[in-house]
Recover the amino acids of this structure.
């Protein structure tokens, strides 16, 4: 899926894609762990596995990532954040994401760990609730 910069961002921040996750997908550094989390959700929604691998910490990143094209990610709610600000070196984001396929629908609830190295945030791993 390709989005116009003026379309609402899939992460539901309320901002247009070109002012929200679009610049991060184009290479800008996320200022906070939450913004990285939102951009990763949007990458799932848009089918951008390369971005997901790029923002996954090398110590925990899989060798490859294949997304299910039948699974559509439709909504993201940030439940809580701990640290992860512009001056922090680590952070945690708890979220709930809604998905659907032609035959099913559900949610994923996870608390994700992030680390910031050399000015860039990376996803480490998460605990699914």
């Amino acid at each position: 899926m390709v989005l116009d910069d003026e379309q609402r961002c899939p992460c539901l921040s309320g901002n247009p894609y070109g002012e929200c996750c679009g610049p991060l997908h184009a290479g800008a550094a996320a200022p906070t762990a939450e913004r990285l989390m939102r951009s990763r959700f949007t990458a799932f929604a848009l089918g951008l596995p390369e971005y997901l691998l790029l923002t996954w910490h090398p110590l925990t990143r899989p060798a490859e990532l294949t997304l299910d094209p039948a699974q559509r990610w439709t909504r993201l709610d940030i439940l809580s954040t701990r640290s992860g600000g512009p001056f922090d070196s680590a952070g945690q984001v708890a979220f709930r994401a809604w998905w659907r396929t032609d035959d099913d629908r559900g949610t994923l609830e996870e608390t994700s760990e992030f680390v910031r190295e050399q000015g860039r945030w990376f996803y480490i791993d998460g605990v699914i609730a």
The chain has one domain: 17-128. The helical segments are 21-25, 33-46, 49-54. Residues 17-128 form a domain with the Nuclear Transport Factor 2; Chain: A, fold (CATH 3.10.450.50). The longest helix spans residues 33-46.
